[in-house]
Structure formats: C-alpha cells, structure tokens
Amino acid sequence: MDRIVVRGNGPLNGQIPIAGAKNACLTLMPATLLSEEPLTLTNAPRLSDIATMTQLLQSLGAEVTSMQRGKVLAMSSHSVSNLTADYDIVRKMRASILVLGPMLAREGHAVVSLPGGCAIGARPVDLHLRAMEALGAEMDLRDGYVHAKAPGGLKGGVVEFPLVSVGATENALMAATLAKGTTVIKNAAREPEIVDLAICLRRMGAQIEGEGTSTITVQGVDRLGGATHPVVVDRIELGTYMLAPAICGGEVELLGGRMDLVGAFCEKLDAAAISVSETDSGLKVARKNGRVHAVDVTTEPFPGFPTDLQAQMMALLCTAEGTSVLEEKIFENRFMHAPELQRMGARIEVHGGTAKVTGVERLRGAPVMATDLRASVSLILAGLAAEGETVVNRVYHLDRGYEKVEQKLSAVGAHIERVSD
Ligand code: EPU
After folding, report:
1. How many angstroms is it from 167 CA to the middle of ligand 1?
2. What is the pTM of this model?
C-alpha cells in the first residue's frame, strides 16, 4: 500500500494548476443516462472516484471512453441495458446514488443498492427517495436495494427539501428534466456543482431556471440531446492548495482559481492574516512572516464555509496564535483527523460537533493514518508545516479526490514523495 512521506520545509513559491471538480464530474457523468446522444466532458479530473463512476455507468450499458489521458470523457447511452446499480460498486462510492434519477426518468424503472454509512457519518438517502416520490415514482426498499418505478413516466411536482442536500438536489434536477410538466425544487442546494450540472443539462436541451438559488424550476422536455461541457474548476482542490502557502509561508498562484467559488473560505483566510488576490490566471495566496491568527469557523451549505475544507483549515489553525473554534454542521463524524493531528503535537479538544484548537508554535512529524479523503490531505498540509518527517498511511483515500498531489506540491518546493511497498 502506498504512503506519502512529507518533510516540513520553508516557504512555497510558484504555480499550481487546479483540476476540474470531482463532485461536479460525479454528477455530470450520470447525466449521460438521460440521453441517447453523446455527452462529452472536458476538463475532467483523473481520480479513482471517476474510474468507479465509469465502471458503474458501463455496468448499466453506457459507453464511456477516456481520452487525453483522462481529461476528456466521451460518454454515450444508446440504451440503458441494465437497470440495476449493484452493491459491489455502490458501496465503494456514495455518489453512485446519482444514477437513480436519470435511470428512472429515462426508463421509468431503476434498482439501486443502498450505499450504507461511510466514515464521515450515517449519510442516509431518504431525501433522494422523497424527491423521486414527489415526481410520482413508487419506491420500495427490499434486500438492501431501492426499487423505483414510474410506469407512465415521471410527472412534474413540488420537491421541498427539509434540509439542504447537494446530492438529492442533483438527483431531483436530473429526473425533472424528462418529467411531464413543471417541477419546482424548494430549499435546493446552491453549490457551484449544481450550477454546473444545470448548465450542462441546458446544453443538452433541458429547460431550467433558478440554479444557484434555493428555488429551481424545471420544465420537463420529451427528450434531451448531446452536448460537450467543460467541468467547473474544483473549489475544494483550490481551497486545499491555497492553504499550502498559508501554512508554510511563501506565495503561490492557483491557476484557474475563482474567488466566487471560495468566498466564505477567503474571508476566513483574510481574518487569519493570509492575503488572497485575483490575478489574470487565477488566485494568488501569500503569507508574510509571523504566525497566522486564530479564527472561528462554522461549516454550512454553499455559500457558507464548506465542510470539505474543514479538516484542511484545522491543519492551518493548529499553528495559529490563539484558540479557534470549529463547528461541523454538515456531517456528524467529521473530526477523525483531530486525533491524528494530535499525534503531531496539535492541541485539539473535540466535543460533539465542535473542536477547540489552540495553536502551537510548531507541529512535529509523526506516522499518521488517513481516515477519509479530506482528512488525508489535511495531514499532508500539517506535515508541510511540521518539524521532521510525517508519513501518511492509507493514501488510497487521497487518490479518490486529488490528482498528482505529490507532483503539484513538489512543483512549488514542498518535500513530498509517494513510497510504494
Ligand atoms: N442527508 C440526509 N438525507 C439524504 C441526503 C443527505 O439526511 O437523503 C444529510 C447528510 O447526511 C448530511 C447532509 O444531509 O448530513 C448534507 O449532505 P449532502 O446530501 O449535501 O451531501 P452529499 O450530496 O452526499 C456532497 C459531496 C460531499 C460534500 C457534501 C456537502 C459529492 C459526490 N459529495 O455529498 O463531498 O461533503 O456534498 O457539501 O458531491 C468530499 O468530496 O469529500 C465529500 C464528502
């Protein structure tokens, strides 16, 4: 099994290109099931989660061809020949539930394995199922599978979410494009990945208004066509690499970075005394001498501070001057990086969904264990700021969501390498 070895070093300088968004690509790919015509995604990230979604779509009868070393995904679903998303694939990746809406909308029938819990919390799929019911589907849970049918096709309706869910909004949006009549999605998620999905679906011929706000209106159409769509830049990869110079000092330009994708995060960096500015090619982050300031952070749905940057922000705050309070409001079990950071000398107290972090002058390198994707990269960031060597084990988590992390960080001067047994 691979490990990442990081040696703490001084300032980082240079440029890091930001890839297309994993979480946008994972919802754009199932959109191919909505149409007989080809859907081509450009700017796709090269990640193991994308390979898993490719495998799932192929198991359902879609053709998925990866071109330009994975940067372009050419997909085509002349027919959906298998209507069962099998447990063996779904259990690997929760985003597999995103095939439910498209299959049901196109074929009037879908069987999808329940994904089960995951490291960061229980993560039920009840909201996805309720959305399909609001569009006229009948749902039955049997043998660990969701059996969904809408014999006469889906019908437009009002989908009102009791809490904001990115995935359930995506499923509802995709399903509504082919439902008869008008669908109104209330309390919709406003994440940039939803906006990207709506833009792509419109390119395929869908009639959608209001994406990026909490009410999305969809006028169903009889069929969708093909399209070519560039995947939006990954705001979480962007925020993660913005933290590298914030933690180590120096000045790094994030190519393709956009302020509108990371507004709430930039406000916290500013409060921590990290400077962020826009350039012609992206965003530039610089940290002057002296320790960063402590800041309090609460995770929220977009446009609030993203839960997917909480672990990385905690790594920064471990060496801040003063005490920071981090509140995790999206997932109930997303502080598993805290005990690993403590192994590196961090002072963190966790009580339920709140972590109190009192900054220390310097972290110390240690062997640590990655527990999920964002936790793994937070340990790498902490390692960059630590004295001595940090060995991050179980890096398969990292490969789900960060392409070429060692190359990207070494290019700006970090001491990082992957070691295979
Ligand atoms: N929830 C329910 N019922 C549902 C769906 C969600 O109770 O049917 C709850 C969840 O348990 C959670 C909250 O609602 O407490 C929000 O979950 P959401 O549905 O928004 O999350 P998701 O769609 O499963 C996506 C990202 C996550 C990211 C969250 C929040 C993808 C593939 N995943 O998950 O990304 O953390 O939105 O922004 O888009 C990651 O990339 O590391 C990652 C975990």
Report:
1. 6
2. 0.97
